[in-house]
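queue> pop job 88
queue> type: inverse folding (structure -> sequence)
queue> payload:
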């Protein structure tokens, strides 16, 4: 195994992709394979190995140009700026270049010209064609079009797939979508993500009779938030509360959320650290139209909270039906509602342990 240069457009340890990135960096460091890494925010006091890639140009674009109104074009701009800056840093051959999907094409092309031994691509979502189909479906079914993916991004991602020597996937769901799109099985390598040790069951949970439903993540249509709200609004159990730990990124979702919260005061936003909320939860719902893995329900399981996840989520392989949660059809608020009603009346024991994790 050659020395690794690793690049990720998300800050070290921040958000799902940032945590994914941090795990890869630390695994390479532990094995003595870490040569260097590039990211917008490096690990504290790690300047020997990490180089910060500033994104000042992107900050200007998202505040002062019409692009700020488009999630997908913002994603394209951010990825292009980061990718080209990393490529400019590559000046001599190395063993392995590890990049994250959608932000690695120019870096891969430069590394190939320099004679890198191996190009390794981290696929954080299902195959981009499957992802686009599901994001379009989310827009049709919810009426809110907030996908970060467009055709330019899709084409760039396909080229990254072609250039990569290895594509690392982190769920069987993701692996199968690549195989269905014709990617050779031998090009796919499975990796396993881990949960931070701070996510563990609390010493005690609230005993106030409130049925608490929790979601953690981006408040977007592609994440199925309108489905969850529709399901919760019809819940017959009382008292009940829906807590969304996260924030919206589009005006359409802001308007939708403000209107729904004004109609139903049981729904509230609680940005910040999800751990205290998870320690109060009776059930965690991840209604996403697509997620290659999904850290949030993984962390909920580690906290002893049963989960409801969709078929198009890598997390489903960690769910034991009726033991620590349920898997429901994607895009089906009625199925989510039925499971919420069931869990409210037949609480799942929160003494289970997270299984299948490596």
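queue> result:
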């Amino acid at each position: 195994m050659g020395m690794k240069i690793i690049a990720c457009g998300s800050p070290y340890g921040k958000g799902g992709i940032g945590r994914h990135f941090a795990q890869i960096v630390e695994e390479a460091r532990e094995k003595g394979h870490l040569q260097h890494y590039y990211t917008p925010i490096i690990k504290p006091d790690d300047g020997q190995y990490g180089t910060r890639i500033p994104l000042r140009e992107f900050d200007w674009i998202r505040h002062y140009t019409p692009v700020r109104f488009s999630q997908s074009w913002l994603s394209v701009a951010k990825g292009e700026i980061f990718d080209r800056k990393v490529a400019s840093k590559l000046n001599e051959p190395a063993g392995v270049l590890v990049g994250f999907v959608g932000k690695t094409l120019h870096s891969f092309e430069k590394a190939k010209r320099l004679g890198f031994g191996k190009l390794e691509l981290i696929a954080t979502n299902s195959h981009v064609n499957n992802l686009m189909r599901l994001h379009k479906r989310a827009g049709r079914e919810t009426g809110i079009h907030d996908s970060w993916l467009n055709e330019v991004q899709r084409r760039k991602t396909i080229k990254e797939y072609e250039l990569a020597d290895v594509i690392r996937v982190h769920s069987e769901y993701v692996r199968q979508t690549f195989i269905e799109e014709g990617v050779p099985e031998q090009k796919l390598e499975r990796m396993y993500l881990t949960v931070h040790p701070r996510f563990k069951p609390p010493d005690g949970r609230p005993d106030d009779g409130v049925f608490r439903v929790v979601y953690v993540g981006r408040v977007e249509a592609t994440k199925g938030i309108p489905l969850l709200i529709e399901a919760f609004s019809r819940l017959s159990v009382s008292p009940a509360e829906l807590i969304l730990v996260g924030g919206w990124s589009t005006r359409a979702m802001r308007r939708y959320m403000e209107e729904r919260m004004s109609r139903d005061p049981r729904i509230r936003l609680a940005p910040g650290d999800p751990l205290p909320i998870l320690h109060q939860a009776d059930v965690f719902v991840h209604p996403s139209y697509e997620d290659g893995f999904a850290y949030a329900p993984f962390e909920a399981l580690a906290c002893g909270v049963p989960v409801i996840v969709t078929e198009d989520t890598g997390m489903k392989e960690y769910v034991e039906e009726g033991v620590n949660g349920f898997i429901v059809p994607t895009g089906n608020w009625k199925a989510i509602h039925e499971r919420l009603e069931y869990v409210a009346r037949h609480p799942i024991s929160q003494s289970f342990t997270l299984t299948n994790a490596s």
